[in-house]
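Write out the 3D structure for:
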Amino acid sequence: MSDRVLHIPELSHANHLTRTEVRVLSYIASGCTHIEAAAILCRSPHTVENHMRNIHRKVGTSRTALLAQFARMTGIIPAEPVVVLPTPRLQKPTARG
């Protein structure tokens, strides 16, 4: 086992996140993929990835696991685990004939 120390980002960094970044972080930290978060937010996965890059830069970490801890410590997501249900897929209408 490694003796590496994980440094949790400072809580004051939460004040620098936009509302959209907080929403994106809440979904990603709760276990959603970029694609799932994009579908929930009605945005493209590329947009969600851009928001995540900005969040990583503002908070000062490149590790999503640390962002999840940061989100729990700042109250962005609850401390206890949350079950994330998959979003339903829209079915294509079938031609009747």
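Residues 29 and 68 are 4 Å apart (CA to CA).
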